[in-house]
Amino acid sequence: MTAKANETGTAAGVYAPRTAASGSLEGTPVSLRNLTRAFGATKALDGMSLDIAPGELVALLGPSGCGKTTALRIVAGFEFADSGEVLVNGKDVSEVPAAKRDMGMVFQSYSLFPNMNAMDNVGFGLRMRKTAAAKRRSKAGELLEMVGLSAQAGQYPHQLSGGQQQRVALARALAIEPHVLLLDEPLSALDAKVRLQLREQIRNLQQRLGTTTIFVTHDQEEALSMADRVGVMSKGKLEQVAEPSELYSRPATAFVAEFVGTMNRLPAQLAGPGTVIVLGISCAVMEGGPTEGPVDALVRPEGLTVAAAEGGNGIVTGRTFLGATTRVAVLLSGDTEVRVDVPSTAGAEMTPGTAVQVSLPPAPVLVAPREQ
Amino acid sequence: MASLTRDLGIATAPPPRVARSRRRSFSGWRWVVMIIAGIYFLLPLYAALRFAGLSGFKDVFTTPGFGSSLWLSIRLAAVTWIVSMLLMIPTTVYVHLRMPGLRRLLEGVTILPIIIPPVVLIIGVLQVMPLALRASEWLLALEYVVLAMPFAYRALDASLRAIDVKTLTEAAGSLGSGWLSTLWRVILPNIRTGVISATILIVALVLGEFTMASLDLKQTFPVWIVLFDQENAQISVAASIFALFVTWVLLMLITVVATRQSRRTGGGEVTLFTAAPRQTIGN
Fold this sequence. Notes:
The structure holds two protein chains of two kinds. By secondary structure, chain A is an alpha+beta fold.
């Protein structure tokens, strides 16, 4: 059945993944259950759980050392969890060696085999599966075409640019029709322009093939722009798993709020349940956060307003032109610096030294314990 | 007038002149060193050629012992090479992959055969080895494996350092390749320069080793040359020149072929101890 479907796919010049052959464009569900992993005294993973829907692209985002790479390597089978399990299609694969897991992986560093040309690199996984040479070549050729490198099939890795190498690596990982595609910061070694192009290419390909994908990155822009859902990790734990827009507008914790996007901290006083006073205005408090003690309110640059005002509560200290908007840095009385986004037309008059009034529209805000 | 221009020349542009003269004197010294080294190496060869004469070369191939001793040396070189590679390649790869902290220790251990004189080694070995093994010519090959270890390890280590063994191994693993297949299809082709360097060093070492073979009472090619020297010095000298020539041709052949192969996949020139780093290309 699978073979037949694949042949039809080949004849039509379209790559037919296993998922399409089985009649639906659904990938494989993956679950991480309570994974822990310690390296000496440091806990790389501290009870991490995550359910990934078939065909979904989940990005694991976090600062270096947060455990995101460890999680990925445990799924790949290069590392082992101290406890917890990895379920692929409902089956625990903890005891399955990496070579038998059917997972395609793209690495951060260039990982193409230097002794093989692009075609042989892509065909390597099929060769390991004892696929006949002719079929292997046609499949590898299709995949190279998908990543737009048919013309480079005969070239060796050292003859390819960094971006081309990562595209071949992607084709190589997809050639085995993997259950799960694992991407370990595949773009971080590339320059900005190539990174943007490749980002879109990976996403398009992944959606077309419907391959369940885990994408590890420390670049929030990458995570937010590519993923169906983003898991923000800190100290071996998932702080929040949510769609990019929700992550940005409704961060569950102070860490997520400050790690994703730019966030201002404003000194605030709790005034009764669910109410906080910021910049002299009484606001509702979003769920979560402390209910007593000294707190800060967390507000995005676009959540504040600023206007030139003699005897206002702050002084402009700098500004950054961002195109349509200008980000104005304001030093508030009490030594708090905030950044406020204003339309660039309004930003023109906010020269450094201008006295301004910064205010907060009465919308619910997030509070966090005050930082020392 | 001429002196005036010269003076002017000095006055207006002294730095280039100084630099030029320095360069000239440096390149002059280079020639002096080259010539002295050339005389040092080539004069004995020339003397040996003169001494051996044409007749020496004519008779050397039919002299009793020549063929058998050369054959023994070649067999020993082959066995030493096989055992060394089987032992050292997996070991160095494993250390690079799993125990990089041990690299320094291994470096120290593998240098021991250079520090300990061969005489000491062979006497110790002969004391403890059972008679059967002592009578066999393969004992010598095992000893040569020890003797060749420092060279083999360093050559392999250098070429492993030039590639990202861990990532390549993991990439192969995730594509379904087992340990042996990864070693054979991925690691080995990419440390070929190191393997070839090790091969060259091992072959050269075994074909020229005298002390151990002599004390082990095995008539290898060098031992035969020394013994036969008492009978017919001309033929013996012709034999050693012949051996030198054959070794040289062999080594040149290996480096040329290996360099051509290595260039194809982006590696550098193959030399004895260095695996030239791969060219890395940015975006």
